[in-house]
Amino acid sequence: MDINFHSGNFEGSFDLLLFLVKKHKMNPLELRISEITDEFVEYVEGMDKVDIETTSDFILMASTLMEIKSRMILNPSREVIEKQEEIAKQLYEYSLLKETTEKVENLYDLHMKEFDISIVPSFSREINDSLPSVFMKIINTVKQEMNLRKRVYRITKDLYSFSKKIEMVKSLILKSKRMRIRDIIETSDDKLEAVVTFVTILELLRLNFILIDSEETVVINEAYHG
Amino acid sequence: MKHIMAEVEALIMSGHGLTVQDLMKLSGRNRNEILETLDQIEEEYSHENHGVELKNVAGKYSFFTKAEYFDLVSKIRKKSVSDITNSQMQVLAIIAYNQPLTLKEIEKFRGSACTNQVKELISMGLIRRKRDKAKKGNPYFYVTTENFLKALGISDLSDLKEEVVENTEIPENVRRDVPQES
Amino acid sequence: MKHIMAEVEALIMSGHGLTVQDLMKLSGRNRNEILETLDQIEEEYSHENHGVELKNVAGKYSFFTKAEYFDLVSKIRKKSVSDITNSQMQVLAIIAYNQPLTLKEIEKFRGSACTNQVKELISMGLIRRKRDKAKKGNPYFYVTTENFLKALGISDLSDLKEEVVENTEIPENVRRDVPQES
User: ipTM strictly over 0.85?
Assistant: First the structure.
């Protein structure tokens, strides 16, 4: 067994102690200090004494172990047995902590590599799960209309804001009092504007500015306009 | 052969519709291997102890829940597109028309807060957010999804884009203003 | 029995994390049926011809791609990785195993100061502090969060503790004498 350990091999004295306990197939809680003290001291003596702070921790532990060992041989009093038990308990806690850290690290690394998945519900029905049918109908009308006219579609980013559109549609309806939804939508230049126009109609309905007359026609709400 | 199955399954389940080409490129397998594997997976999931199945829709492979479990599964899909409210539709239209937009820009358009509408629209799968790392402060932008087009009955916007690009009457500088779908 | 498997599979695959309760309610099956079915599905997907697996994360069941296909799947999916340093991991483990703990208690366990690590772990959402008003001086206690379970992909803390105690290779009779931390 190579005993030329640098202090870096063990983070602290408990690491070395745990290593020796495991090497001797000892249970941390049934620690028999007398059996491992010599080895512990040997390791500490072989350490590079560069990092004073770390090595002092090892030296302190070594002297504690040596003290317990000699007293165990000479006079195994209640007090010295308790001292050994105290170290055993600390060692056990330390081994749990070490094990937990390793476990947490492993689980974290593993789960980092797992992606959650989600499946789309049955696709044939998925298509039914769409915007209200009237919306669909209108959009399709607009689509056909536009294909027919083969307009030049130019998407201009800032041509219509929603509020502008509301004003436009309002004045349109105010003028004719009664309009087919399709005719209102047809004032749009492209598909996306059609969406905005349609939403505008919905908003005016919500505000009670207009009422639906039949499924395809809206009228000015006379009550609203006094 | 077993490992290919697992590979292809993992890819398709975590992707959003992959073509045979995609699968070949991603896994480094040849066409025959992929086709054979797809057959095996299809066979495996056709058994009645599975509630999902592999389907090829327009050349793209995805898993779908089986039709017979539709009613069951729809119980957990709380947010259905058909439940869309007017205010949500308003926000949706603003995003559709001006995308990409930050939350602030949407609120400026609408003149009122719309965090909730945006969240609901995301959960309905109609919009999604993306981050522009190039921009200062790494802001989130909202754009419509493919689902949105599907819900509208417009399968994709590419015809629109193409028409713009093909039309030579549109000057370069205008063309650059066309919002790009990602 | 086969149909339950398909039902539960369809539900979990299209849901975003479902508890046993959710599954009972949605399927109208009793607890034992659900638990048994979950076992069967887990068993089925553990085979090497599957690239995804069933997991209970923080009490919710979801499917995940298996870790061994990480390189493959990461070609189409991105995961934001937050690196945890060794010392942060140590502090996290101390809290996970012995919570709730005050800062002083954590530092006693570790043998050195760890204010910074605690701060970082809070900002990562892996731990949080809470106040025990019943205790003298109103001290802050640190506990792990649900996010911690999610980050580790485990159902609850007992998963972690059981395995740790098993691995320390201490005979049953001795283990019982170990003072239990609350």
Answer: no
